[in-house]
Amino acid sequence: MGATKRSSPGRKSTSPGRKSTKAAKTAKTAKTENKKSSKRWSVEHVEYLLRMRKGAMPYHEIATIIDRSELSCRLKVYTEKKKTKAMETNAAQAAPRYHPQPPQPRQLLPRPEAAGLDMLADAAATFWDVVMKR
Description:
Elements lengths: L20 H14 L8 H12 L4 H8 L3 H25 L23 H16 L1
């Protein structure tokens, strides 16, 4: 078996997968130059973003138009949707809980004759006739 070369603990490796410190510094400065400064969202930009997303325009195109990153556009759409959903929920909770309902029509009791209970109706009539005559 071949022996593998080990580096000492304090020594930096110069393997092909790792950049040297000089290359890392230049890459870092290139990233900071491309990084946009954070700025507040204007109402016009938010409205434009939501309108374009409703029309199915891709995030990367919207981002280039309004000079934002694609990620910030996605996050803004997410937070705006969350805000509107919360406002709708709060409005529903703030509504009065009592909802007057129209009066229900009274249920008419079935007449004994209609139910085929003529004998019972006759017995009740006879009973009341007897009670009232006393």
